[in-house]
Design goal:
alpha/beta; Rossmann fold; 11 helices; globular; KR_dom; 3-oxoacyl-[acyl-carrier-protein] reductase (NADPH) activity; SDR_fam; 3-oxoacyl-(Acyl-carrier-protein) reductase; oxidoreductase
Length: about 300
């Protein structure tokens, strides 16, 4: 028996890339899969259920069970239809993998309102809509799990991605709150930050030699390396794992820390702007973190 035998899993953005590999592995591990994909471009334009249909046909050809859902997750009714289709076709829903996403990269001072709103609408609001629809079912049945995709662009930083970074850090907060709120109902929620070559990473601008080298490294990181962790987190064997942030980089898996106080300073008479400058700043400054991009932290070649 596979790790997901008898389970029903919904994967958003499952027509291509990481989502496709998760859907295929989930089916291989015994799950019935709702393959959601709007089929839009990396910027969120257009619609084509063809890629999702291809994934479903592959699953069925190997004896598995899967259906296509072509909804836009940023539409609340579309998001709800993913869960409704799972219930209609398979009678239940056990796991949601929030993977769909768009990129609207712009350096911040050139970022338009639509660049900002489109990214938040899909990369954060869409995750909320799908999660909320599933949460109502999970609560009643007393079990369920969420696997949300975040990004090191938010966890660490990157150029030209203020909108994407904000959304992906929002996903971390969403996941943690779900984990806290729904723990009593047997529901878990975790995040994965992936390194993998996909349509989205292919759109990353590379102009300097260092940026070109980074893109070349990304090309060696295939999407299938991400799927095993997602499938594990969607299984019953992960029931003691919740509120965590993982990262997958080829054959490496990382666990990220979360913000916690690192220094404190008390002044009985309270603080003034001058005392902050004269006393607190010198005490705190050694603990300040440097500005960094994801590539600065993950600077070595993966094996």
């Amino acid at each position: 028996m596979g790790m997901l035998e008898g389970k029903v899993v919904a994967v958003t953005g499952a027509g291509r890339g990481i989502g496709r590999e998760i859907a295929l592995l989930a089916a291989a591990e015994g799950a019935s899969v709702v393959v959601n994909d709007l089929g839009a471009s990396e910027s969120g334009e257009g619609a084509d259920t063809g890629p999702a249909g291809e994934v479903v046909e592959i699953i069925k050809s190997k004896g598995g069970k899967a259906i296509v859902n072509g909804a836009d997750i940023s539409d609340p009714l579309g998001a709800e239809s993913i869960i409704e289709d799972a219930l209609r076709a398979f009678g239940k829903i056990d796991s949601v993998v929030n993977n769909a996403g768009v990129l609207r990269d712009r350096i911040f001072h050139k970022m338009s309102r639509s660049d900002w709103e489109d990214s938040i609408r899909v990369n954060l609001n869409g995750y909320y809509y799908v999660s909320k629809a599933a949460a109502l079912v999970f609560k009643e049945q007393g079990h369920g799990n969420f696997v949300h995709f975040t990004s090191t662009s938010g966890l660490i930083g990157n150029f030209g991605q203020a909108n994407y970074s904000a959304a992906k850090m929002g996903v971390v907060g969403l996941s943690n709150s779900i984990a806290l709120d729904m723990q009593r109902f047997g529901v878990t929620s975790n995040c994965i930050a992936p390194f993998a070559w996909s349509r989205l990473t292919a759109s990353i601008p590379a102009q300097t030699e260092a940026e070109i080298e980074r893109v070349e490294r990304l090309k060696t990181m295939s999407a299938d390396k991400i799927a095993p962790l997602a499938v594990f987190l969607a299984s019953d064997r992960s029931k003691e794992v919740s509120g965590q942030i993982f990262c997958v980089r080829k054959n490496e898996i990382f666990l990220f820390s979360v913000p916690r106080p690192v220094r404190s300073m008390h002044r009985a008479e309270g603080w003034t702007p001058d005392s902050i400058a004269d006393e607190l700043l010198p005490a705190f400054k050694p603990s300040f973190h440097d500005l960094a991009r994801s590539s600065d932290i993950f600077a070595w070649d993966p094996i």
